């Protein structure tokens, strides 16, 4: 009876330890996904800013040529 | 005693099923996936090597065929079109370690974009005024026969090109407004 209880306790401890690690990994994965999502929007913003600057230059040049 | 045994085995089964869902098995799965990817890459490089060899063999087999069109190109007058400037979006890699950092950068970029959008908006309005004035002046000159028809069309083409650029800018500004809207 004692042996079984001991094994049970060890198994429970192992499970608890593994669950903790899994939770940490899941949280890290979630964080990484969120960072990626935010960064993709930031990249779109930065590219759009570049595009606007580029088109403004083009417009300036064409207006000056008139 | 029998029921105790049953309870113990049941608990053990629960523990084992729990263990199956933990990271140890997930890591094992990742390792297997990585190994599969490496194998796929190896196969691709091997295939690429074979294709290169085939290309080299083809080039060796027909060197005269490739040199022939070069001669004709020299003989003919080649009209080189003007290089058209096109904006190419860049792939930017950020080195954010936390989502808070990423959000801060996003806020910064959002502010920059807002300022750019505001400037571009005024630029569009100014350009529109200038273009209308230029078009009116051109039409007046044409009616008064101050300019030749060829010059008229040349200037009209320039105005139309500028109008197209302004329209493009307006569309981009609209996109920027939508993106920066809270």
Shape of chain B: elongated
For the residues shown, what is the average pLDDT of chain B?
A: 79
- Record field, number of beta strands of chain B: 0
Determine Rg of chain B (CA atoms, Å): 34 Å
Question: What percent of residues of chain A adopt helix (DSSP H or I)?
Answer: over 70%
- Number of helix segments of chain A? 1
Going by helix content, strand content and strand pairing, the class of chain B is mainly alpha
Number of helices of chain B: 5
**Extended strand count of chain A:** 0
Shape of chain A: rod-shaped
Please tell me the overall pLDDT of chain A: 88
**Assembly state here?**
heterodimer
Largest sheet of chain A at a glance?
none
The biggest chain-chain interface is: A-B, 41 and 56 residues
How would you characterize the largest beta sheet of chain B? none
**Beta-strand content estimate of chain A:** under 5%
Q: Radius of gyration of chain A, Cα only, in angstroms?
A: 29 Å
Number of domains of chain B: 2
Q: How helical, in percent, are the residues of chain B?
A: over 70%
Summing up helix and strand content along with how strands pair, one would put the structural category of chain A as mainly alpha
């Amino acid at each position: 009876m004692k042996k079984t209880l001991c094994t049970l306790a060890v198994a429970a401890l192992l499970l608890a330890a593994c669950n903790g690690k899994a939770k940490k990994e899941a949280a890290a994965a979630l964080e990484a996904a969120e960072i990626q999502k935010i960064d993709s929007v930031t990249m779109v913003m930065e590219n759009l800013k570049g595009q606007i600057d580029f088109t403004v230059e083009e417009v300036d040049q064409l207006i000056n040529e008139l | 005693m029998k029921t105790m045994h049953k309870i113990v085995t049941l608990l053990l089964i629960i523990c084992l099923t729990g263990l199956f869902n933990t990271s140890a098995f997930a890591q094992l799965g990742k390792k297997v996936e990585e190994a599969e990817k490496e194998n796929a890459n190896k196969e691709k490089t091997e295939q690429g090597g074979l294709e290169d060899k085939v290309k080299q063999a083809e080039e060796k087999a027909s060197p005269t065929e490739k040199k022939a069109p070069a001669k004709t190109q020299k003989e003919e007058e080649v009209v080189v079109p003007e290089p058209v400037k096109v904006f190419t979006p860049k792939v930017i890699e950020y080195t954010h370690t936390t989502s808070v950092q990423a959000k801060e950068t996003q806020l910064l970029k959002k502010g920059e974009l807002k300022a750019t959008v505001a400037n571009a908006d005024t630029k569009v309005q100014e350009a529109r005024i200038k273009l209308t004035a230029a078009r009116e002046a051109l039409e007046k000159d044409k009616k008064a026969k101050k300019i030749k028809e060829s010059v008229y069309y040349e200037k009209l083409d320039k105005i139309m090109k500028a109008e197209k650029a302004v329209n493009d800018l307006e569309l981009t500004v609209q996109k920027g407004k939508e993106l920066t809207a809270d």
